[in-house]
Here is the input.
Amino acid sequence: MPKRTYQPKKIPRARKLGFRAKMSTKAGIRVLKARRLKGRWKLTPV
Here is the structure.
């Protein structure tokens, strides 16, 4: 049986998808704004 393809690592995921990564671009800030307006409980997955 081969290894599963998704081998999660917290730090690379946070660097790519985390709050600070989102805040570093205009598009990311717009994403967070939209999620706040929608009333999301969590703004980012990490």
Remarks:
- The chain has a mean pLDDT of 96.
- Residues 7 and 13 are 11 Å apart (CA to CA).
- The chain has one domain: 11-46.
- The chain is about 55% helix and 0% strand.
